Design the sequence.
């Protein structure tokens, strides 16, 4: 899978309003590029007993697979991708077999459970860059042979895109949920010709984040953030942060409850 295809997915993600539609975009490409058959996104904290497990297939669709409780616990704990101290390159993609050793992995209970429940034998851990624990990110599964060096190289190149989609999904989900009625902002944003990315920046602006802080949150340059802010000011007909947030609140683009902030 070429870098140009990853760039196409990144552009498509930046123009997608529905957070739920962001995951199929990256899922299909990760599975193709990594040679996987199934993928499970792990973007929230799980415990052994809680956390929704939704396997995705290559077509970017969710699979209805009933897992045994023991397999669910195995996946939720992130075994064997549990502690950053397990490897000096904790936030790089790695396969379970390479992490614990091919013989140990193939002969272990974890590989047996995955084969019984998912029909797979190998798993690749693709952590979100900078996450506190490497099991936050994506788990990619495949049958038969382990993932190759080329698959791992692709996963490494796809990491920034996975992180960006995760952050964009979080911000847009919070923005949609905070409006009254929930999810009513897309038409309003379109009326002002705001893009989904500019809307995400606007939401962070209302959270009193500075341009450098927004840049860190979105993992982009400060210059890119300033460009987004210029576009937002121009489209809303405002001159500064405070006027922009207040107008967005009055128009319904931001929750009115934030009127005391900024």
Sequence:
């Amino acid at each position: 899978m070429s870098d140009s295809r990853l760039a196409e997915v990144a552009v498509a993600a930046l123009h997608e309003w529905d957070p739920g539609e962001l995951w199929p975009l990256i899922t299909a490409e990760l599975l193709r590029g990594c040679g996987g058959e199934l993928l499970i996104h792990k973007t929230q904290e799980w415990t052994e007993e809680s956390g929704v497990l939704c396997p995705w297939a290559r077509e970017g669709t969710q699979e209805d697979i009933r897992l045994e409780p023991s397999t669910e616990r195995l996946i939720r704990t992130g075994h064997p991708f549990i502690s950053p101290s397990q490897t000096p390159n904790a936030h790089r993609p790695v396969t379970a077999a390479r992490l614990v050793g091919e013989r140990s992995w193939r002969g272990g209970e974890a590989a047996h459970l995955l084969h019984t429940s998912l029909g797979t034998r190998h798993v690749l851990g693709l952590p979100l860059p900078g996450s506190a624990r490497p099991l936050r990110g994506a788990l990619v599964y495949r049958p038969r042979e382990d993932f190759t060096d080329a698959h791992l190289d692709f996963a490494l190149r796809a990491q920034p895109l996975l992180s960006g989609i995760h952050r964009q999904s979080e911000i847009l989900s919070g923005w949609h949920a905070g409006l009254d009625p929930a999810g009513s902002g897309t038409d309003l944003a379109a009326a002002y010709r705001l893009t989904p990315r500019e809307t995400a920046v606007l939401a962070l602006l209302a959270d009193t984040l500075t341009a450098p802080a927004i840049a860190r949150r979105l993992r982009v340059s400060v210059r890119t953030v300033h460009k987004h802010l210029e576009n937002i000011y121009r489209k809303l007909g405002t001159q500064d942060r405070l006027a922009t947030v207040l107008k967005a609140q009055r128009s319904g683009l931001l929750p009115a409850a934030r009127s005391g902030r900024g």
User: Anything to note?
Assistant: Residues 87 and 122 are 18 Å apart (CA to CA). Residues 179-260 form a domain with the Arc Repressor Mutant, subunit A fold (CATH 1.10.10.10). The two ends are 43 Å apart (CA to CA). The first strand starts at residue 38 and ends at 42.
